[in-house]
Amino acid sequence: MGSPLPIIALTPGDCTGIGPEQVARILSDGRLADVARLVVVGDARVLDLGAAQAGVSLACRRYDSPAVVNWDDPLVPLVDLANIDPALFPPGIGSAQSGRLTGETLARCIEFSKAGEVDAVSFAPLNKRAMFDGGWKFPDEHKMFAHLLGHSGYFSEMNVLDGQWMSRVTSHVSLRQALDLVDRPAIEAAIVLAIRMMETAGIAAPRLAVAALNPHNGEGGLFGMEEIEIIRPAVEAMAARGFSCAGPFPSDTVFLKAFAGEFDGVLSMYHDQGQIATKMRGFNRGVTVTAGLDTVFTTPAHGTAFDIVGQGIADTGAIENAIRLGAKLAGRT
Q1: What is the pLDDT of residues 109-136, one digit of tens each?
Q2: How far apart are CA 312 and CA 51, in angstroms?
Q3: Contact present, 52 and 12 (Cβ < 8 Å)
Q4: Cα 317–Cα 321–Cα 325 angle in degrees, nearest 5
Q5: Which of 66, 106, 159, 315 has a CA between 20 and 30 Å from the CA of residue 288?
Q6: Residue 15, class by beta-carbon neighbours within 10 Å (0-12 exposed, 13-18 middle, 19+ buried)?
């Protein structure tokens, strides 16, 4: 009888960042063996670099694809793409070529997912600018994933910290653009996706708080009419349809309510409105999820940390949480 644990494709992320060190460290002692069956997809030389940076030893077995992995073998399974020589890319410096190859590695993971060979993809930190400059002309990896999967419906990036789900109406766009994108259909779609994802994660009857856009919740229209004309009608309409949502609440206090347990998640109107609160609360624990796609994608909510690359001090808390959440979501989708 096969293992009930989901199979997760794990990539080291951009080789110029802390991802290789993080991946090597968590694989070296098998600390997540009871969570998922992990198969590394990437270049063996990048994994070797990570082991050297982490100061750990790592024994791998190469396979052509996840489908042929012998899960009884104690060695770390590796699909060696042989596509990235980390010696060509100085650590801690963004590189368009490295970004291109990081994207290619993720694209292979998506192929494995579409073929049913893996149940989820967890990836170490990447560099959006490097990937864009390397030819992946998307503002972030989430839109790249949607494109490669041929997805045409609504999807969004979400962040998860200590069981709290933080979503947003707009994400990787300029603040000026974000203001124009905050409309009733977008808010309603975001509410539906946020609650559906929390349900998928096993939260019974999830409660969602919706943040205001303007200071002081608009101060009764004194600081803007979006709360009165757009956000509140959207929240009330979705509540009438049976979605447990409330708001809008002032964005400088809504997270206090959520972190105190009054809500299971918060829907922000734009990126930093939610990210600042969650990263201040648990920078090395947060997970980013690409919600709404057929494939489960999870990654640490932090970046490549160029300032500490190669020092052997990169925290693995967020990537461990990413794998744990990926396994949970894969088991419920």
Answers
A1: 999 999 999 999 999 999 999 999 999 9
A2: 10
A3: no
A4: 175
A5: 66
A6: buried
Q: Examine the pLDDT at 101 and tell me if it is beyond 70.
A: yes
Comparing 2 with 305, the larger pLDDT belongs to: 305
Every domain range in the chain assigned CATH 3.40.718.10: 1-151+293-333, 155-284
Residue 283 pLDDT greater than 90, yes or no: no
For range 250-264, the mean pLDDT: 96
In this structure, which long-range contacts are made by residues 273-277, counting pairs with CB atoms below 8 Å and at least 24 apart in sequence?
A: 273/168, 273/211, 274/159, 274/166, 274/167, 274/168, 274/211, 275/159, 275/166, 275/301, 277/166
Mind listing the pLDDT tens digit for each residue in 185-221? 999 999 999 999 999 999 999 999 999 999 999 999 9
Average pLDDT, the chain: 96
Architecture of the domain made up of 155-284: 3-Layer(aba) Sandwich (3.40)
* Model confidence pLDDT, tens digit, residues 131-187: 999 999 999 999 999 999 999 999 999 999 999 999 999 999 999 999 999 999 999
- pTM for this prediction: 0.94
Q: What are the Cα distances from residue 300, in Å, to 75, 271, 283?
A: 25, 16, 9
Quickly count: other Cβ atoms within 10 Å of residue 19's Cβ. 31
